[in-house]
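Lab meeting, action items carried over

1. Structure of the three-component assembly. Owner: GW. Status: complete.
Input record:
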Amino acid sequence: MIILLLLIIPIITAIACVFTKKHGISKYISIAGSFIALVYNIYLNYNIYTYKTLQGFNNFFYVDALTILTTQIVTIVAFAAALYSAGYMEAELRWGKISEKKLQWYYFLMHMFIFTMLLVCVINNLGVMWVAIEGTTLATTFLVGFYNGKQHQEAAWKYIILCTVGITLALFGVILTYHSAKGVLGEIGYALNWSDLRTVADKFEPHLMKLAFLFILVGYGTKAGLAPMHTWLPDAHSQAPSPISALFSGVLINCSMYGIIRYHILTSKCVGSEYSCTLLMIFGLISVIVSIPFILIQKDYKRLLAFSSVEHIGFIALGIGFGGMYSVYGAELHTFNHAVTKSLLFFCAGNLFLKYKTTEMENIRGAIKTLPVTGTILAIGVFAITGTPPFNIFVSKFLVLAGGFSSGNLFTIIFTCILIVCITLIFVGFIYNMFRMIFGTPTGDIPKGETSKFTTAAMLFLLFFVLIISFYIPPLLREVLRNIYDIIRNA
Amino acid sequence: MTAEIILPILQILVIVGFSPLVKGFINKIEARLQCRRGASIFQPYYNLIKLLRKDAVVSETSSWIFRATPYVTFISILIISLLVPVLSEQVPLNFTGDIILIIYLFALARFFLVLASLDTGSAFGGMGGSREMMVSSMAEPAMILSFFTVALTVNSTNLCNITNLLHNNSVLLLNPSLILAFAAMTIVLIAEAGRIPVDNPFTHLELTMIHEGMMLEFSGRYLALVEWASSMKLLLLLTILVNIFFPWGIADGLTFSGLIIAFALYVVKIGFFAFLIVIVEMSFAKLRIFRIPNLLGTAFILSILAVISLYVVR
Amino acid sequence: MTQQIIVNSRAIDILAVLMLMTTIVLIGTSRLRTCIWAYACRSFMLTLASGLIAYFSGIHHIYITTGISLALKVVVIPGFLFYIVKKNKIKKEVGSYINYTLALILACGIILIAYYSTQNIIQFENTFMRHCLPIALSITLLGFFIMISRKQAITQIIGLITMEDGMFFAALSTSYGMPLIVELGLFFDILVSVIIMGIYVYRIKESFDDLDTGLLKELRE
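Predicted assembly:
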């Protein structure tokens, strides 16, 4: 029951927002709703700390450490996005780009999106998890095509087509898993429950499970943004409104990765971790390498951030694939760090867009003079996202690389070396592109001053997390990460 | 002894005698569906009698091929009528030929007809002949593969064995590969018999003719023989289709009652399929020439799938 | 194997082959309305097959999925597609990147690949409904093929639902369908995605004045 409450909060917020006509009220409803979800999630976190796992509704919901980490990320970024939307949408309303009626749907879809992501994390039944992941695609298509321009509609069409195709391939994987499970467990309703499958996975037929994992990786990997299935990602993330881009880059790809990790655990139990780890490493490395040229020659700053998401999700896949204690710990910490840092950067990008009204990096100069707070935070964020010490991403990347070197496998060590080269190149690309925007003299007559209090508050909220994790990992987080490693390792 | 004489005579009578009636029936139904009265069912007979009485006019520039072709065509199709199970499972020329011989006899008839169309040197004849070759170059593989599917189902290419086994063991007919083969065969039937949507048998525009174009230069008894041969070809293809895929009612031996029942059911089945041909003719427009490969390509693909699926699921 | 079981499984195999034939018609045709009718026919065969499987195996929740499939895939979705065609006044024929004869031959190749690759799996299973898994896989791959070789947006939608149909049939024939709640979620998902894509077809037509997705090349690199 307590798990169901977590899911009901965003639904209520969504319905309340869609019936509120004035933006002045609905933004407060949305902020309140996401704040309540955040607090409730922290309460659930303490529950997990004590009880290790939670189940509800006759094993329909299942919450363990992996779930609670992902839901925590979702609720934190959702709250920040709700705060930021309040300011950003107000500015766009004043600008005249959108109407109030559209905003009703915006908040409705945003909270339904948050609901589907939470549903993905807490559900036990692998089939319904599939439906929920497809649900995230459906809930967000209209958000990608929110504005009426040509490139927005193109991005939305590409998004829905590519993601639905990918997820249909993942359905084949789910079917094969169900088929294997039925052979072992018999014809019963819970043959698709992850918690039950985990105990009997070693009796499945290896050939079918390998095929299933491959399809799941390709299918959910499309949603997660692993190359070469990532082609929708730069378009969708750059054409959506900035708070939604933050939710995409931060949390949606994490939820898809969550689905892949669940299957990774099942497959490791069945055929040993060699197969799935190798596949994850290959896809991860391809993602990192593919993103490099696009980051170096990018002209649009939101697309730059989107390609950086591809690189980071490849990194997370690599971390899980390396398999050692440090790597997995680092990869999971990286999901958290990347979520908060990337969202922070997308918020800064949104502020830049509102001030300069252009998405090309060529046309933006002197951000630190026109937007002092945003400019500073942007500088910090760029250093953070590229893995500069002492920031949070450096901590998680260091852990993953250390785990890669400490494993005895030759391929892992080679991959790690290639990875270090890639990270350096990306650092160069980012610093060059972003810092040109921050410094210099502002072109034209741009009025100075921040967009709104809400946007600043959202950015400071996320900056707080970035800085905290840089220096101190709270014991709650440490415990959760250790539990996740145990779950993955006990396969 | 008597059985060996009666059966071939019966089969020849049925095929040769009834093929103009089938054509007349198709024309009549089509006319009725188009809200016309249409010619009588026996009109093709009257046409044949009229043509047999007339003089044949032969072009000066043609060779012996032109004069031999009608006979070659008619006789090869006549031989096919003795190779196909019409009323009974026992086929008269069973000892000397099977499916492959049937296919080659069709090819022989077609070959001579095309040569004759080129022989007179007329442009329309050449066009008709080359188009006929194009159509059959794609239809024939589909036909062969469909036949092979059936043969593989019963492990024999002998039509007598095929009909016997399929009649007695009807469960074999429920094979999905046979459905694919049947679909391919219907498309091939339409192509080989020269009906819409492949070829319009009533067209008077020489530029759109395929089969009629080859027959343009024939007159008198030659034209009678070639027209009769083409209507026999239609009936034979229908007979093969009907008696292989729907063999219920075929007489086991040569009993009188068995043959009467077989004949009645045969008439019903052929009538039903003729009606289906009319429906197809009325529903579709004639395809443009360069679209015909699409249709026949579909038939070819269906027949390949029939054979492969039969092999894989064995 | 008793005679009855053979006849039952053959009946379902025959329906599967009819579905395959309608999918081939879908690939070989150039007219948009024929595509939608072929899809409707195939959905009808799928519903019949699902009903027969429910009847033969005695599992009652498959009847529910049959009913929903009939309502959704045979009536609602083709109706909705026809409505989109009429509303957007689409007169152009379906555009394709490769000509239709080549597309048919490639389709044949795809089906052969599907048969070949499921050979191993079929031999491990019992001899029941042997044609179904290769045909289900080939319908999925053919749907994928339709999506990548066609330019028009509505044909891409049809390709997408073809893929989902193939998956549904694979689930139905190998493990008698998924648990009911998953099936319900699947149907809901198909319905909503077709509606959303229909709305986007309208928006694309408004923005680009044409439904040729080859024109969607504003966003590069």
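2. GW to write a short summary for the group page. Key points so far: The mean pLDDT of chain B is 89. DSSP finds eleven helices and no strands in chain B.
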